[in-house]
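INTERNAL AUDIT FORM
Audit reference: QA-55
Scope: verify that the stored structure record matches its stored sequence.
Auditor: D.O.
Record contents follow.
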Amino acid sequence: MSTLPNCPNCNSEYTYQDGNLLVCPECAHEWSPQDENEALEDAKVIRDSNGNTLKDGDNVSVIKDLKVKGTSSVVKIGTKVKNIRLVDGDHDIDCKIDGFGAMKLKSEFVKKI
């Protein structure tokens, strides 16, 4: 049995090694076995203000008053935010806050409940 991984492009099990690359005969995708290891290591871990790892679906609370851009409203300290989604970018939390609607927050201004 082959110990080579399935193709990341089409999930074919018929991959083979050609020099330093792995090749899929079905979709002609070529990749380096180190790419998979680096992708796992480079996966961004998002942490709250206390260093706890955040994941999709977590509940958090705001640790300081946050001004809402474009309005005179403020999200008060202690506001609970349920069911967050993690996204790429500067503001790495996508959520809905009661009374404000959809928002993006920075993880450094929240703590996990």
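Auditor finding: record pair retrieved intact. The chain has two domains: 1-41, 58-112.
Action required: none
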